Amino acid sequence: MNKSFKILLLSLLSASFCNLTSGIPLSKNDTARHSIDSAVILFHLPQRELIHFFYQDDYNTPSRASQYTDESGFLRIALYVSHNLTITFTNGMTMYPVLVIPGDSLTVRKTYQNDQSNYEFRSNKHVYANFLNEVERAYGFFWGSLQLSPGMNTAYYRKEVKKLNAQRLALLKQYERADTLGCNLATYLQRELKSRYIMDLCAPYHTRDFNYQEKVPREYTIELDTLMNELNCDTCVTSMRYRLAIRNYLLYLSRDSLYGNNEFSTVFRNAYSRFTGNSRDVALFITMQNYIEKDHSAVLSHLPDFDAKCKNAGYKNFIDSLALRESMLVDSTEGSNSLLTDSEGITHPFKSILSAHKGKVVLLDFWASWCAPCRAETPHMKSLVEKYSKEELAVIFISIDEKSDKWAAAIEQLGLKTAGNHYLLDAKQPLSRLVGIPPIPRYILIDQAGRIVALNAPRPSEPVLNVRIEKLLRDNAAKTAKVEQGSHLIVK
């Protein structure tokens, strides 16, 4: 699969190019026009400094790179850039977003003030290279500089978000007045800021534990309703920020169904019915991508509908590849034959561990003794185990600890010995790669027939996990009752 951006070892290009080339995501048959679809980044930094940066391609797949400068502090990297792209450099926890356009030649330097270092960006194609970096420093761009907390007053939050948006736009005006190169990117950047604004305003619907039903007043939702017109922009879909705004806005549109059994189907319906053109394709793709690990069976049931409604071939191929992950994990030779070690030192194929619990709901808990978030979930997991009988729910703890003594000690300390079955997973086993761990904790929910229903299930501390388990038990009981009733009628 061709991705929209690839790190290429190109020589310095001298092509003069200044154009907004935003458009629909690249198809698999697209080829790079390297003479213009490239950007060169030149680093002038301290010697042997490690550079980290990342960006997202048109399929929301993150691409990361790390490279050292040479003995003189110089480094040159060339990227395939088919349209305007935000690249984010990192130094510790600090983010430095920068706008790069096709044909760009970008210089990166480090400045120092009051013992604080900062990256600065300059382009010979446009004056806006450092704009997003300035916005991030002063008003937040990568992250909104104001985070909505469960106890925050919504009126205050909305007021502050509007103020930040006005300040970002005022800074853009300053750059626009200084634009003497004739490559006007102000319109594009206005849309980037609008997407950031929409993301911030939608925070009540993706902030964990925020009671949006009670705390969001009518005037707040009225304003959100007016923003729908901003999210049907055919030429905006190559912007990562725009795609994130669509994702967050879909949660707002589907707010009455959040955390319920029909959340996915509602979001899918809104993706198709409320968006048009390329933005509809993005909305459908994001919905399938975001939920395929959370509600696998529901997503698969909508796959024919997605294939019929989505017009972007690249999106459809990408989702098809994700849909195969379940069979790779459970049915493939490398997944099912991956070996796990029990507390007695005996190895077991993954398939035999699952087979032993067929007929029950199975919850896989990937963890490690050194993982603080994993340990924090322990009381909630024990409560979950106490709630259901062993005939209904089987919990399988799979640790990625390298040292078995630390693993055994943690099981004892946390009181997990009788909470479920315990196994060690070697990082070299294919199962580790197929699941995609680390990071941890990671939970996988499997139904009574042995099929994965959530490749990335909610944590035990999240009430929605109980909802999912209850539904599996309820559906299975109804199915069993129907079979028994049918058998009774036949006997009669």
From TrEMBL:
Pfam families: Redoxin
UniProt entry keywords in alphabetical sequence: Cytochrome c-type biogenesis, Disulfide bond, Redox-active center, Signal
InterPro entries reported for this sequence: Redoxin (IPR013740), Thioredoxin-like_sf (IPR036249), Thioredoxin_CS (IPR017937), Thioredoxin_domain (IPR013766), Thioredoxin_ResA/DsbE_sf (IPR050553)
Principal location: other
Subcellular localization(s) per the UniProt record: Cell envelope
Signal peptide start-end: 1-22
Name the UniProt record assigns to this protein: TlpA family protein disulfide reductase
Gene source species: Chitinophaga hostae
